[in-house]
Specification:
Catalytic activity: (S)-malate + NAD(+) = oxaloacetate + NADH + H(+)
Helix content: 40-55%
Family: Belongs to the LDH/MDH superfamily. MDH type 1 family.
EC number: 1.1.1.37
Strand content: 15-25%
Organism: Zoarces viviparus (Viviparous eelpout)
Radius of gyration: 19 Å
Largest sheet: 6 strands, parallel
InterPro entries: L-lactate/malate_DH, Lactate/malate_DH_C, Lactate/malate_DH_N, Lactate_DH/Glyco_Ohase_4_C, Malate_DH_AS, Malate_DH_type1, NAD(P)-bd_dom_sf
Length: 337
Amino acid sequence: MFARTVRPTVSLARSLSTSSQNNAKVAVLGASGGIGQPLSLLLKNSPLVSQLSLYDIAHTPGVAADLSHIETRAHVTGYMGLDQLDAALQGCEVVVIPAGVPRKPGMTRDDLFKTNATIVATLADACARNCPEAMICVIANPVNSTIPITSEVMKKHGVYNPNKVFGVTTLDIVRANAFVAELKGLDPARVNVPVIGGHAGITIIPLISQCTPKVEFPADQLAALTSRIQEAGTEVVKAKAGAGSATLSMAYAGARFTFSVLDAMNGKEGVVECGYVRSEETECKYFSTPLLLGKNGIEKNLGLGKLTAFEEKLVADAMAELKSSIKKGEDFVANMK
């Protein structure tokens, strides 16, 4: 039995410098955007990637040309426009989707829904047709709805595998690790806080009680820390003052998750990351928990573990919003023409 406190695989730095090699073909859909460009740079830098397929509706040839000059082994190809989307996905084993519009001040993740729902449905449809066996890692917000959308589109094509469709919530874990380390004077690379639930506001549930190393906070500080982790995206949106949302930290988190998926596909054992997936762990159809990853995606859902009363209340408080977001995503696909 795997301990629930298994440290999610490796830090990004170690993934970048690892000597193990793989011949994975990875696609980034939305590669020209604020997340897509730094994410593509991190993937280009990794020996785990042999082919990097970059797709967007504009500017991809330039991004691909720029990245292709970097002295690492990944071969980079750029594809632009819907007529090149199918070609971008052929033969891909992992697809990462940061596509969509970013959040601006005053916008909720829900405000993004209409635009990003259509984008994600289009991209999921292309994945279902061109690389139905690929691991699909969705960054596009609102993740609480875009994963149900991706899943329902894959079902329509008869190729849905719940072990291979992931909502990338890793930024919540990365932030929790950084904030706890800052408060306790620890090395953030050695801190691991599982974050469960969803990927927006009160659905983000950091399990500080399960942090390794063990940390404790007074009730008021714990409440403030939890709130900061839940609202960290808004913190960045406000700080950028209209110039976008979290892009660099999201690219880091997206790369970390992708490297974990690739490591597990390569046969590395004990690879654990939290992810928002189809789940039987709660009354919600989709829920983020720590996942043991393997060659074929999710090997085992490690569940919620032992919660404190404070954390149990956070889970209870998140349920209505999560269920509503899930239904919204499912209804969107059901009503698609």
